[in-house]
Structure formats: C-alpha cells, structure tokens
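Input for the complex:
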Amino acid sequence: MSILDKLTAIQHHHQSRLCVGLDTDITKIPNHLRDSDKGLLKFNLGIIEATAAHASAYKFNFAFYEQYGKRGMKVLRKSLEAVPKGIITIADAKRGDIGNTSTAYAKAVFEDMNFDAITVSPYMGRDSVEPFLQYEDKLVFVLALTSNPGSTDFQHIISDKKPLYRHVIEKSMTWEGKSALGFVVGATHPKELGEIREYAPTNVFLIPGIGSQGGDIAATMQANGSGPAIVNVSRGIIYASTGHDFQEKAQQLTIYFQKEIGM
Amino acid sequence: MSILDKLTAIQHHHQSRLCVGLDTDITKIPNHLRDSDKGLLKFNLGIIEATAAHASAYKFNFAFYEQYGKRGMKVLRKSLEAVPKGIITIADAKRGDIGNTSTAYAKAVFEDMNFDAITVSPYMGRDSVEPFLQYEDKLVFVLALTSNPGSTDFQHIISDKKPLYRHVIEKSMTWEGKSALGFVVGATHPKELGEIREYAPTNVFLIPGIGSQGGDIAATMQANGSGPAIVNVSRGIIYASTGHDFQEKAQQLTIYFQKEIGM
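Predicted:
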C-alpha cells in the first residue's frame, strides 16, 4: 500500500486528521511517573493507549528523547513499537546535511527505526533532501513555513517577489524521488497556508501550531480546504493532567481536537 | 577557561587549525575491522590515536552514528571519551527546532554528551537558535554558506541586495547568548568566504569542504585571513587506507593538511 493510501485509510477509519505529538518531558509528566525509572515509557504507552482510536498519526520529536541519552532513545524505540499498525509514525527530526550524510540520516530513520515519515530542513538544498526522497512508501515533510515566532526571521524574506518558503516549496517540487513530498506549514499562519494550498494542492501538509502555540483551528482548516493534512497537537493533549487521570484527560482533549479539526 | 581561549590554546599547542571529521562508515573502514562487532569503535580510536597530536578539533557527524542505532550511539560516546583533553569536540548535528525543542537538543549535546560545540540550522529563526546560545563556554556554529552543491538552491537567494546567508549571519549576530557564535562557511566558496570575513571578522568559522569536496586550501586560507578558523577534513583523512596501515596513512594525511592549512 502506498504511504498516501495508508494515510487516507487510517484517517477514514479513525475519522481523524489529528496527530498526537509525543514531546515527552520528565518535568511535565504526571507526578507519580516522574520518579520511576520507567516513567517516561509508561507515560508514552499510557498516552498511546488512550488516544490511538482517535488519532491518525503520532509524531516523535527526537529532541525530547535525545536529551535523556541512551535511556531516552530506548523509550523512543519502545514507544514506537507500541503504536498500533496502520497509524502513521512521524520522526520529527528536522534533519538535513550534505548528500552522503543525509543518506545516513535517512537510513537511521527509515531503515533502522522504520518510521513512515520524517521532517527535513531545506537550508542546505537539493542534495540534503533527495536522499530522504529515495525511499518508496515514505512521506518526507520539508520545513516550509514553521509555526514558531522565529519563522519570520528568514522564511518571509522576499526574493523575486516571493517569500523564501515559496522558493523552498516550488524548488523542492522539482526534486526527484519515490517518496511522497509533504510540507510543514504552521497553523499560526492561516492566510499564508491558504495561499500555499494554491500552488501545492495535493501535497500532504503537516500542520503544527494548534494548542499551546495558539493557532486558530477553524481558520486553519478552512484555509487548508480539501488538501491532505495531518494536524499536530503535542503539549495541548499530552499534558492535560499531571494526576492519575492523565490518560482520561488526554483522551478527552484528543476527542475535542479530533472533532474541531474535523474530516 | 573560555571556549575561545581553549581553541586558541590547542591551536597553538598543536600548531594546527585542522579538525578531523569522524564520518565513520562501516562500508569504508579497513577490511579487517568491518566484520568485527567493535570495528567501528576500534577504527575511531585508531584514528584519534594517530591524529590527535596534529589536530585542534574532532567533528562527529551524528548521522553516521545514528544510522547504526543503539550500537552507533555507543560508538559515538566511547569515541568522544577517547578525545584527549584540550581538543575541541564538535557535534555536527545541524539541529534546530521551536524554542522548547531546541532547549532539549542543547541539553542532549551540551549536558548529556558534554560537547564543546554544535552546528545548528538557522531556517526556523531566532527561537530555534537561542537555546544553544545560552550555554557559557560553548561554541555554536550557525550554518551560513555550506560546502555542498545544494548550497546554491536557497543560501544564495538575493533579498534587499544581500544573499540569504548574509541575512542569516547579520541577524544571528543580534541574538542574545553567552556562547561564542561561529558560522559554517564552506571552502568551496573562497570568494564569498572572504566577503563574509569583512562583516564577521572575529567569529570562528568552521570550514568544511576541503578534501573529498574539492575546496582549494590556499585560496580558502587566504580569504579567511587572520580570522579564527577550524578547517575540517573528514573522508580525505580517515579513509586514506583500507588496510592495516590505516593509522599510519591517516596520520600522514593529517600532517599534510595541518601544514597546508597552516597557522
């Protein structure tokens, strides 16, 4: 099954375009799990169990696991194994390096860890992204217009009457590969997201910025129209409660976001 | 000792501005080490032993270790421990994400692994880079003009009569932090490197692109002038021989590059 068919299938089956972002931080998980050696893993398994029926994807931001060293990477691998088959797994690693190095990163994420998708940074250009695009049945999200405050520093720089992020999108659409090409487009810029949809109508958008980052869900989904999208919420779901009811509260918020985002 | 004093001290002590890049790849190391479970580590320890007296830094490109999963990360940590005290260690990880995530990456590299320096990608702007700059006595290399073919795709885009990499350099110099701010400027663009030196005269440049990538050493060092610089060679040194003489050959090439680069 192609990765796009897999995405469509799970989104219809779960009636959800929501992605739950597992930005797991020892200082924010429930108190009773903080002191346990297995607390991080128990937290992730608990969140996955409580939310899987309402999600179409899980996004693992590598930073949160790398900060705990070997222990963190073990939690990442074990959590990844716990994601039910059919749900899309996204390595939010924002990788990108010279050609032979990007090849090694792609191998790490797509072969060693077997993720369905990855986020990559475009700053180094074609040979830094193409190694990721060589994999069949994978989804590669190029950073275009991100959701953070610093996105205005360089991504909006105008050249030839177009912002940098538009150059990134248009140029990357000319690159060769077998993977599906998607873009990271933040919910904090709904107007620009709508404009991007016009010149990238069929690419999958990974949309962060809902929840803690304050993006407007209705405006974002209207701007996106019928284009394929995965909408991520991390902190706004997983840290709903620091008590023993963390699964229940996370599930309630997952259902809330699933409905608000709609199909 | 400040990180810049540490850099100056080792460069004078070893009379070297050379950085050896440990881009360790199982398919390229000597034949007799390929089949051994500890081959990757033995190779790195052998290279470090043979080259340390002539190097001022070691650069670990994370991709090469991540591609081997847990085993690779263990090799990275053990190799890092083997670098003699006083020599600068660079995490070539090209990280960068929204603020709270970059904080986690900084923690991984500067606290958990205790590297002296890191490379970061500027595409996401200020809040993606500042968390790295919060550390005292660390060196943060922002990607400016990279050495790879794809560097021309976006880094040379002109806005307001300046290329994107100049916007990156000028803006990042206004960001706050306690670390030393450096830039990655490839040896494959000596003319531009000389121009960058004019508006960034005292920042440390991490200069890749010598060796396999074909950068001209004399032109590069002339363009750099007296500015602080660390010049990296990876494949051009470490894969000098696939035989039992790999240490000897790597040492010969290290001395060759040390002299060509000069002080």
